[in-house]
Structure formats: C-alpha cells, structure tokens
Amino acid sequence: VLENQDLQDSIKPQKVEFRSLNFNSTLHWQPGRAREARDTVYFVQYKVYGQSTWQNKDDCWGIQNHVCDLTTETSDIQEPYYGRVKAVSAGVYSDWSLSCRFTPWRETMIGPPTVIVIHSNKSIILKLQAPRSPYKRKRGSRIPMTNYYDLLYQVFIINNLLDEQHRVPVYEGKDKVIKIENLRPGVSYCVVAKTYVPMLDRSSAYSSRQCTVL
C-alpha cells in the first residue's frame, strides 16, 4: 500500500494552469516528480465556480499530452472556471490537481492588431485590424475582440537610422485607419502596434514589424 501511495504522490500532475490568448483557452500542467513513466495518462475535468459537479472533457480523457483545449467549455467569458487533472500509471491513480480560478474576460491575453502599411511619398497609411476571438457570428465569421473590450491601438514608429529600441509612439486611439505624415523620403521606417485595454490596464505584445521605404 505504501508503494502505491508513493507512486500516487509522485505521478500527481504539477502546476495546473489556464493559459489564454484572445479567448483561446487551454489547460496546461507538468508531469509529477516521477519524471513520467511511459504509460502515464491524464484525465481532465472542468466546472464553473459554484457548481457542485465536475464535467469530464472527453477529448482529454486518457491522453498523454500535458495540454487540453477548453476554449469551447469556457465560452461564457464572464464566468469563473476551474480545471483539474489526474494521472494514472501502472494502474495507480493520483489525486486530482486543481487549477486556480480562471475568468476568461479578466485573464485572457489580448493579441496585437494586424497592421497593413500603405505608403505614399511623405506619409504612411496604416490599416489596423483587431485580433479575433474563436467565437463565431451566425454567419460564421469570427467575432473581433473589440466586441468584448473597449480597445485602443497604440502605434509606434521605428526610424531605421536610429536604433531598434527607439520606438516613437505616434498614435493612440480607436481609429482603424491612421495616417502618419511629414516623414523623410528615402528613409526606411518600420511600424509596430499594440492593443491596449484601459479598463484592465493591459497591453498586448508588439505586432510584427511592417517596414517600408518612402
């Protein structure tokens, strides 16, 4: 019995946590101390905070991965959720390992906007598009993150004669089309942008650089 207890403890999943980007929400965990016997498999359940019964996640029932997609199960983005994972190895079941409480609207990270650069002789026109959520409208198009948050765009310009870290903020606001004027012809400029949520005081990562020579 003691050996079983040791095995139970040593295979118990560690660091169970939700990670979420634009409401694509996955549960992650690490294998137990046993450095994972080959035959270890995992079982995942989830529930809304306050519910008494846990739901099995069928696609993550007896899997060898350390990640489980719970995007569909956490689609009510204002609700707090829990996930939990247990391991089985050599016929021995670990206890459940519980995640922290996860509320998608509060905790999802928002991605940067997509940036398209159109240049004329002394100006650059930028077209910005908010990231999209995994949830769909009736017609099938994915709902943009601007439906869920008051998003601002922050735009920065990098003059390639200066060093890479010298990002000059040139715009913050909600416009999807922005004109940056009075630029020098023959100079290469790069643009990066972020999304910013004032209510949560949270910024995305930078978008990928879009560069152009006037």
UniProtKB/TrEMBL annotation:
<dbReference type="InterPro" id="IPR036116">
    <property type="entry name" value="FN3_sf"/>
</dbReference>
<dbReference type="InterPro" id="IPR013783">
    <property type="entry name" value="Ig-like_fold"/>
</dbReference>
<comment type="similarity">
    <text>Belongs to the type II cytokine receptor family.</text>
</comment>
<keyword id="KW-0732">Signal</keyword>
<keyword id="KW-1015">Disulfide bond</keyword>
<dbReference type="GO" id="GO:0005886">
    <property type="term" value="C:plasma membrane"/>
</dbReference>
<protein>
    <recommendedName>
        <fullName>Interleukin-22 receptor subunit alpha-2</fullName>
    </recommendedName>
</protein>
<dbReference type="Pfam" id="PF09294">
    <property type="entry name" value="Interfer-bind"/>
</dbReference>
<comment type="function">
    <text>Receptor for IL22. Binds to IL22, prevents interaction with the functional IL-22R complex and blocks the activity of IL22 (in vitro). May play an important role as an IL22 antagonist in the regulation of inflammatory responses.</text>
</comment>
<keyword id="KW-0964">Secreted</keyword>
<dbReference type="InterPro" id="IPR050650">
    <property type="entry name" value="Type-II_Cytokine-TF_Rcpt"/>
</dbReference>
<dbReference type="GO" id="GO:0004896">
    <property type="term" value="F:cytokine receptor activity"/>
</dbReference>
<dbReference type="InterPro" id="IPR003961">
    <property type="entry name" value="FN3_dom"/>
</dbReference>
<dbReference type="Pfam" id="PF01108">
    <property type="entry name" value="Tissue_fac"/>
</dbReference>
<dbReference type="GO" id="GO:0005576">
    <property type="term" value="C:extracellular region"/>
</dbReference>
<keyword id="KW-0675">Receptor</keyword>
<dbReference type="InterPro" id="IPR015373">
    <property type="entry name" value="Interferon/interleukin_rcp_dom"/>
</dbReference>
<keyword id="KW-0677">Repeat</keyword>
<feature type="domain" description="Fibronectin type-III">
    <location>
        <begin position="12"/>
        <end position="107"/>
    </location>
</feature>
